């Protein structure tokens, strides 16, 4: 899937165009600093590649672009809940059609904003009024800011994640630091565990790190780079890789797909919907992830 060679359907500026891939409309950014692609389906970042760097975001070669299914890879937006707290899993934001609100350019790069508001379809799933904005800042680094606003007359609770799939050369030679000492292990019945300072993987992982440091470092040795993930507005960082058995069980991931990806997610975690973070009417909350490299 080469999104950057697709013909433009609409040119919005020198750097921003709309393209189509199968059933999806995609905002494509090609600038002197970096290039990126964001599907309106789910406000889903599909690609981010700074100049003179390998792709930083992993997309499954078997992802389904039918405009209905959640996309495997990229940066899915999990909202208004994270995980299987209700149906659909990870909420409805990642399978909703968002609108392009604005785009602008400056010497630092390109900023794209997409929006989603409650509708009859969303209220049938989750009976609350809201307004979401996703700002994607594309330059020497990538910054994604998900702003959620309670436009209802009563408080509501939420959990959320920017479910970032990082593109790495080889999971076997990748190490992670800055995740903190304590985690909830979803592969061990949500047992609370203690880990070491450096994580290297030899099997599948699904962990909620509850005391992450300000910056998480992913040493992508075979790409000869370090990815620096800085999160804000979160209470945890989720790390996930399904490994061979998990990948083989997924229809939208190739059997070897797990070898070149690692999810490091900026997360507002909650064990239930009722225990989620509360937003009063008129209040806003921002969940942020920033990815840089060295």
Compile the SSE list and pairings.
Blueprint: E1 10-11, E2 16-21, E3 24-30, E4 34-39, E5 44-50, E6 77-78, E7 99-106, E8 109-117, H1 120-125, E9 130-138, E10 142-150, E11 156-158, E12 160-162, E13 165-167, E14 174-177, E15 182-185, E16 191-194, E17 198-200, E18 205-209, E19 215-220, E20 225-232, E21 236-241, H2 243-248, E22 261-268, E23 277-279, E24 284-293
Antiparallel strand pairs: 1-2, 2-3, 3-4, 4-5, 6-12, 7-8, 8-9, 9-10, 10-24, 11-23, 12-22, 13-22, 14-17, 14-19, 15-16, 15-18, 18-21, 19-20, 20-24, 21-22
How would you characterize the largest beta sheet? 9 strands, antiparallel
Return the structural class: mainly beta
CATH level-3 fold name:
Beta-galactosidase, Chain A, domain 5
Order of helices and strands: EEEEEEEEHEEEEEEEEEEEEEHEEE
The N- to C-terminal Cα distance equals 27 Å
User: Would you count the extended β strands for me?
Assistant: 24
Please state the second-level CATH architecture: Distorted Sandwich
**Which strand order do you get reading across the main beta sheet?**
7-8-9-10-24-20-19-14-17
Please compute the radius of gyration using only Cα atoms: 18 Å
Helical coverage, percent range:
under 10%
Shape: globular
Which stretches are poorly predicted, pLDDT < 50 over at least 5 residues?
Answer: none
Please indicate the percent range of residues in DSSP E strands (runs of 2 or more): over 45%
Provide mean pLDDT, rounded. Answer: 97
The top-level CATH class is: Mainly Beta
How many separate domains? 1
Number of helices: 2
């Amino acid at each position: 899937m080469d999104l950057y060679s697709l013909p433009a359907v609409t040119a919005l500026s020198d750097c921003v165009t709309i393209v189509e891939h199968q059933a999806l409309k995609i905002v494509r950014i090609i600038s002197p600093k970096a290039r990126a692609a964001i599907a309106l389906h789910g406000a889903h970042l599909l690609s981010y590649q700074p100049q003179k760097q390998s792709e930083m975001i992993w997309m499954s070669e078997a992802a389904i672009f039918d405009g209905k299914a959640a996309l495997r890879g990229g940066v899915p937006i999990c909202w208004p809940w994270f995980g299987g707290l209700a149906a659909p899993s990870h909420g409805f934001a990642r399978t909703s059609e968002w609108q392009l609100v604005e785009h602008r350019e400056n010497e630092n790069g390109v900023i794209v904003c997409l929006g989603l508001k409650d509708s009859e379809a969303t209220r049938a799933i989750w009976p609350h009024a809201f307004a979401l904005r996703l700002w994607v800042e594309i330059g020497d680094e990538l910054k994604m800011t998900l702003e959620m606003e309670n436009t209802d007359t009563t408080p509501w609770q939420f959990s959320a994640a920017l479910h970032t799939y990082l593109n790495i050369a080889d999971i076997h030679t990748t190490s992670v630091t800055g995740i903190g000492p304590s985690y909830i292990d979803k592969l061990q019945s949500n047992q609370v565990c203690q880990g070491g300072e450096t994580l290297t993987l030899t099997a599948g992982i699904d962990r909620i790190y509850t005391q992450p440091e300000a910056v998480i470092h992913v040493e992508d040795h075979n790409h000869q780079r370090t990815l620096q993930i800085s999160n804000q507005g979160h209470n945890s960082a989720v790390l996930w890789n399904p490994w061979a058995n998990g990948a083989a069980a997924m229809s939208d991931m190739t059997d070897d797909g797990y070898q070149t990806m690692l999810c490091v997610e900026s997360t507002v975690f909650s064990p239930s919907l009722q225990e989620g973070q509360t937003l009063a009417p008129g209040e806003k909350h921002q969940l942020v992830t920033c990815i840089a490299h060295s």
